[in-house]
PLOD1-3-like GT domain-containing protein (Micromonospora eburnea), 273 residues
Amino acid sequence: MKVITIATDLEHPFLRRLLVPSCDAVGLNLVVLEANKKGFRPRDKRAFLTDYLTRCAAPDELVMFTDAYDTLFLRGEEYILKAHAGFSQSVIFSAEPNSWPLGTIGLALQKDLPARPYPYLNSGGFIGPAGDILALCAKYPSPPSEQFPLLKQLRTHDFDTDRMYGPSDQYYWTLVHLLESDTVGLDNSAILFENFTPTVANFCELSRWTSDFRAHGKQAASYRREYARLQARLQSPSGAAQVHFASSLTKTVVLDLLDEGRLPSWLVGVLQR
């Protein structure tokens, strides 16, 4: 089994200080694929990943993708293999509390009632046989929005979700999951992946919080609120293999807590094994 990430900055502090050491500590084989920073977009991750899997992985080899700058691992291969085997689908994605980037449109596309506590796909972590991942990417070379009547209707009103959200890898995988639910599952209960992003009613709130932090630094109300929220949230240890701090403000707070020696022992302890 391999863990694969894609990075444009090999010296990014989260990658260097948290993701790489955590994989070393739990014995995971981390493969870092370096991408050129200039012009790189989140959707380009698929091209890098499929190129690597085509060249370097057998079809039945289990591979786990992880974001580079806001994730770390708590458990190793034995746990991951056993947890993955417990799902009925072969490709399992992380899940989160927010419908992003589609927002309320994403809610309208859902066929079933939300599975709590993490109802919606997050593309910052997924696992499956290399052959199955490659087959999905080959079947859907671009976001399959044409297969959703609602999205086609919106396009007639000049609301083109491909144009608005096409650069998002999460947009692509959300649509693929809705079409391929027998193959692609979500880790709604955080067995393999746990997402620590704040729950918001409107995802635009996160952008406003980031702008507030950029303008006012650690004195920003958004920073103080996220600092307090995350400290309280981290009082409860995660049982997952990967944890994901999936917003720019959240991962900033994590790095600050690391520098201040305030990360809880269950989280930082893995780095000291």
In short: The chain is about 45% helix and 15% strand. The chain has a mean pLDDT of 95. Residues 2-192 form a domain with the Spore Coat Polysaccharide Biosynthesis Protein SpsA; Chain A fold (CATH 3.90.550). The beta strands are 2-7, 30-34, 62-66, 71-73, 91-96, 120-129, 184-186, 193-195, 242-244.
